[in-house]
């Protein structure tokens, strides 16, 4: 008989939200190189089964990239910092951005950054990421460039990240995405748990704390999260311990 993780039922009380980059997968110089280890995907599948599908990914990446990174898992997810949402039953909600404005923003970004060594633009559906991991000294000047461009398009806003400035539709964030998913099955009525590593995850921590859930920040830096893991590997061990009932989530709650 196949061995199945034993559990005491606590997984059926909780909803699990995971950021991907820097949380489920170590950061890499190029986003294309980021991978979630196969063993971790298997654990996430187990967790999803035990929680009746209450495992969602909440990422700055578009949904198609999330699905690629987490395959064969394909459940509820929020992409592009909450601008795209897919519920477990497959309903899509998305920010609709003006394609002319997107093209104009793209052209202006190219005009100002093409000549900057180590800076590159990633087009992500209704958003853009301006990466400067290979040009860290460009952080300030890039912020000014990106902000000046966005000032011309009130439907968009600037989002800070690790070695990246992002331009995304205004009015969406990971907190709102988690809040929305928490009103849909199978998340509804559960206690939210959210793990993230970056500035963009703070909106998620805030919402989860409001709902007396569990918020976990990976790595250093100011955070509203009530718990802290030093590194990605600590999260991997935590997921394993959760599946083996070596930890009780109730003791981690921010009540
Ligand atoms: Mg992250």
UniProtKB/TrEMBL annotation:
Its EC number is 3.1.3.12. InterPro entries: HAD-like_sf, HAD-SF_hydro_IIB, HAD_sf, OTSB-like, Trehalose_PPase. Pathway: Glycan biosynthesis; trehalose biosynthesis. CDD domains: HAD_TPP (cd01627). Keywords: Hydrolase, Magnesium, Metal-binding. The keyword Metal-binding applies. Gene3D superfamilies: HAD superfamily/HAD-like, Trehalose-6-phosphate phosphatase related protein, domain 2. NCBIfam families: HAD-SF-IIB, T6PP. Belongs to the trehalose phosphatase family. This is Trehalose 6-phosphate phosphatase. It comes from Rosenbergiella australiborealis. The lineage of its organism: Bacteria, Pseudomonadati, Pseudomonadota, Gammaproteobacteria, Enterobacterales. The gene is otsB.
């Amino acid at each position: 008989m196949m061995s199945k993780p034993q559990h005491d039922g606590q997984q059926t009380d909780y909803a699990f939200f995971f950021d991907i980059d820097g949380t489920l997968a170590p950061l890499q110089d190029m986003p294309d190189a980021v991978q979630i280890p196969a063993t971790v995907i298997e654990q996430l599948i187990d967790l999803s089964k035990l929680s009746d599908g209450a495992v969602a990914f909440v990422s700055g990446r578009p949904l198609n990239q999330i699905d690629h990174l987490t395959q064969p898992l394909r459940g509820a997810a929020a992409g592009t910092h909450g601008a795209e949402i897919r519920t477990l039953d497959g309903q899509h909600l998305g920010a609709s951005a003006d394609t002319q404005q997107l093209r104009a923003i793209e052209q202006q970004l190219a005009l100002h950054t093409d000549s900057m060594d180590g800076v590159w633009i990633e087009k992500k559906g209704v958003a853009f990421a301006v990466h400067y991991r290979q040009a860290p000294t460009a952080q300030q000047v890039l912020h000014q460039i990106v902000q000046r461009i966005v000032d011309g398009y009130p439907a968009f806003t600037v989002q800070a990240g690790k070695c990246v400035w992002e331009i995304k539709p205004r009015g969406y964030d990971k907190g709102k995405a988690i809040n929305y998913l928490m009103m849909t099955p199978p998340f509804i009525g559960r206690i939210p748990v959210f793990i993230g590593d970056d500035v963009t995850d703070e909106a998620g921590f805030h919402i989860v704390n409001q709902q007396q859930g569990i918020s976990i920040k990976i790595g250093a830096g100011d955070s509203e999260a009530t718990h802290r893991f030093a590194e990605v590997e600590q999260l991997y061990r935590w997921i394993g311990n959760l599946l083996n009932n070596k930890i009780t989530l109730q003791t981690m709650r921010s009540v």
